[in-house]
Amino acid sequence: MTRRHSTSEECGPSSRGMKEWWLHVGLLCVPLIAVYLHIPPPQLSPALHAWRTAGAFFTFRGHNIFYRDSTGAVGSTDVVILLHGFPTSSYDWYKIWEPLSQRFNRVIALDFLGFGFSDKPRPHRYSIFEQAGIVEALVSHLGLAHQRVNLLSHDYGDTVALELLYRYDHNRTGHLLINSLCLSNGGIFPETHYPRLLQKLLKDSGFLSPVLTRLVNYMLFSKGIGEVFGPYTQPTDAEYWDMWTGIRVNDGNLVMDSILQYINQRLKHRDRWVGALTTTSIPLHMIYGPLDPVNPHPQFIRHYQNLVQRSTVSVLDEHISHYPQLEDPTGFLNGYLNFINSF
């Protein structure tokens, strides 16, 4: 009796047909995925376009840095520099820009490298030290190197401000002459800072991070950012899109993992930055939205008051969260102007 041996031909047409079908599906999916991962950035809204048009650029080590510089109150020589947070931009300050211009002679804000309308090089080792250098370079570019300035910061900008404070107190070359510092809702203490899940994934995923940054889309972004706003102070659809558009300009979504290394830098250089905060003699203030899940109440503010006893504090309404200047611009502005007018 002759034994039959099965052959590939006997497995036959149906098997080959399935393989060809999956091959066709794969070939069809590749360009679709490629299109999805390279979705062009949204068009600038009229408001965002007006913000960019009102600004200018200067060059720092070959990179273009966006900034706004408005001349405001006549008869005042006071200057305020606004330092924004992650992952947004100088546009975070738009709700209080005009009121600040009524109090200060100069109101200045910039987009840090990797943010907003500024360049977003990759690969690049983003650092708090470099961002502080950019602020110093901007002040020099604007002819304010010998002018005392007031710093108003939020989130990521808080840590940049602390590096500038350290340089000021240690008389480093090129340092700013700081008149006062007001911080707001930033993870200045690693021990009371709770990054969001997406932030942890992006900063710690190693070789997978470039893949994850390409998968972050508007829906993921808006869900994540909405979680750090209060339930009654959520951004409008237009505000969500403006934030997302600012990120997508110059493919900023692709550098988020690199920028997020600032969380590790805060831990590594805690003594330097917290030490600057606890030993400085310049006027200090903290404006705090207590519903903040990133810097939770009361743990964060108690820790701050215990360590920074010279500082005054404004705690806003209990429903205000991580973006107080956007969620409660009136309360934020009142807290800041009460501080700035107190010395």
TrEMBL record:
Keyword annotations from UniProtKB, A to Z: Endoplasmic reticulum, Hydrolase, Membrane, Transmembrane, Transmembrane helix
Annotated membrane topology: Multi-pass membrane protein
Gene Ontology molecular functions: monoacylglycerol lipase activity
Chief location category: endoplasmic reticulum
Subcellular location, record wording: Endoplasmic reticulum membrane
Residue ranges of the TM segments: 21-39
Source domain of life: Eukaryota
One GO CC term on file: endoplasmic reticulum membrane
One example of a Gene Ontology biological process annotation: acylglycerol catabolic process
Domain AB hydrolase-1: 79-329
InterPro entries associated with the record: AB_hydrolase_1, AB_hydrolase_fold, AB_hydrolase_sf, Epox_hydrolase-like
The family this protein is said to belong to: Belongs to the AB hydrolase superfamily.
Protein name: AB hydrolase-1 domain-containing protein
Species in which this protein is naturally found: Albula goreensis
